[in-house]
Structures are given as structure tokens and as C-alpha cells.
User: Fold this.
Amino acid sequence: MFMNRSMDYFAKNDEFEETNFLNSVIENPELIPEFKHYKTENEQKYSVQDLTEFPISNTAVTTSRKKFKNVINLDTNMTIKMDFINPESAEKFLEKGWDEEKQMYYYLCYFNKEEK
Assistant:
């Protein structure tokens, strides 16, 4: 879901602005420090500096969307493939939860009919 919302942000904006991005993309504010820590570590790893603001290239967004995989591979040898780019669709038709009895995560998928 984070990847879908991120892709949507880049498609709808001409400029990346970190605070706006974080408020638009990360639903749980408690995860923002984790994102910033990950960003800081990778800035050092790849020798990239000051990624708080930069222009967004439409060509790069289009290329990335074509390569973007909407596949969830599960440890139970199941794969969920989502064939959409719109992040609202992911949130509307797919839910993730935790089953206390089985002590496992689950995905709940909504649909009208199964295609053959």
C-alpha cells in the first residue's frame, strides 16, 4: 500500500517535498521516524545528499510505473497479484489483518465475480 501511495504521489506532483510526501503517503505517523532513519542510512550508502526537495520527472514516473510490481509473495506458497496502479483501489478491495487464533496475518480480498 505504501508503494502504491508513493507512486500516486509522484504521479500527481511536480516537486517532491519530504514533509508533504510523508503526510500524504504514510498513514501511521509513528512510522515517520523509521522512514527518516532508513532514508539517512541510504543517503550515506549511495552517497546521495539532501533529498528533502527535488523536481519530479514525469518520464521517470512513467518508466517506474511500468516496472512496478504489484505482487505479494507469501510464506505459505501463495501469491497475490494486483493489477492496478491506483492506491485507492488497493485500500478499497484488499485488507490485511491478524488472526489471534491462528497467530498469522491474513489478506481479505473483496470482489463481485470471479473471472475464468
About this structure: DSSP finds five helices and six strands in the chain. The chain has a mean pLDDT of 86. Strands lie at 15-17, 53-55, 71-73, 79-81, 94-99, 104-109. The chain has one domain: 2-109.
